[in-house]
Batch of 2 targets.
Target 1
Amino acid sequence: MIRQASPGAIVAAILLPPLGIFLARGLGPEFWIGTVLTLFGWLPGVVFALVTILRPRAIATA
């Protein structure tokens, strides 16, 4: 099942990048990477958040 990013998560990713990642993906590694990048600067956090939210998740094959 492919889940599209909600408009609220995209807006949140622009205003507060870790919040946008949390709304779209939950509290995982992407959230913490986005938090660290946002601490380094707003723009790196926004870019990472938008890429994380807009790309599809990898399908795990086992």
Target 2
Amino acid sequence: MSEAASARSRQGSLAAVPLGPLEPMLRAWLPKQRWFAGKGRAITRLRLVSAVELLPPGVTPGLLHLLVGVDAADGSADCYQLLLGVRPAPLPPALAPALIGHAEQGPYAGHAVYEGLGDPRLAALLLERLRTPGSHGPLRFDRDPAVLIPTESTPRPLSGEQTNSSLIYGDSYILKVFRRVGPGVNPDLELPRALASAGCARVPAPVAWYEAELPGSDSVTLGVLQPYLRGSDDGWQLALRRLGAGADFTAEAHALGRATAEVHSALAAALPTVALGPEQTARLAAGMTARLAATAREVPALRPYEAGLRGAFDALAASRGAGVPAQRIHGDLHLGQTLRTADGSWALIDFEGEPARPLADRRRPEPAVRDVAGMLRSFDYAARSHRPFAPAWADACRAAFCEGYARTTGRDPREDPVLLRAYETDKAVYEARYESRHRPDWMHVPMAAIRRLSERERPSHRAGHRTAPPPAPPTAPATGTTPQPHSKPPRRPLA
């Protein structure tokens, strides 16, 4: 019997695979994972949400798919997707780094439990399931029937992934496995499919995906398979190389602005749009103010600038903006979410949005200028990774990006300075929290923006304007050594 046939005939259930024997090892292992969002919060309980034995212990190796709820002492609760391999102990040397623990009792007694995505046999099984749509208990696998997915593709994990895990199959496809999941369609599946329907070539259409159907809940998106593009350049790394060579990047920034505008226009055509009235605009500003207050409590360096930063949000609330268009957007746009393809065109990737935000929030329409603000901050990040700091490079790129955007839409994002400043400020506050938690040596990057944006005088409406930003500290790392928040290695999806 094939591995897939065995999986189909021996599906697990919540009762068949209790979490109890696995709980101690998962409680110790989860907080060490890069994609675990609850760092610094004590785990009070693990809850089994779903379990399916795709390859049970009777088959070696076994593959156990879990959705595990994690409750924390601060009252937060998250759900994580785990794919666990099970083998008789000890593990082969190649899999030893993936070890989670050894089961001493229950159905896996005497077996080693490990991270299954690093096992080529188990990774190959996932691709086989995506090739052959069907259900395994609560899991449902689906695909685009018009696309031929090859049967023989050697899988390998993509190293350095930040908030999820990815597998590359040969040189053809990449599978993104979502780790922190929730009810509802993930934007990284929903938006690329909508863009493909609208004929937008800037973002690839998923060729296969899998979900979980849970009682009393919306479906949960678990993974998306996309084409893998060879020969593309990650936008962040490309910008750093140009900086290091002292080369201009404005042509690329202009083209990237046009690409972003094309994606926004296609999303607005494919999905519903709304107009924000005064009350919605005030709520938008209130949310930014609340995030600022929460971050200032956590990051003491922010407190001297809190009043000035709040002024950007107060100005937005006072603008009483009526009819501000809002639509589906990328939600976490920066240079690390872009690829320049071999033919010189730009593609946008990773439409999941900021993973720290609830899924419902990430699916809510917002002004497109939020994506613009994220990219403007990204140019600043790149410039401040360079020694010496290159403010003129950042200013030129910011201006070129906005001009490219306006070339497509007919409206320059800088023509709404209150909204743009509010979103840039909100992004800088987010960056300060991120760097404080993960890379304190890089706090100087968002703090430079914090100081600039907190100035009480109204900034120029032109994105290239700056008011004497402080120089980068002499201890700033060298060019090319540091990614920006949530940046990822090149995923190269696109046919």
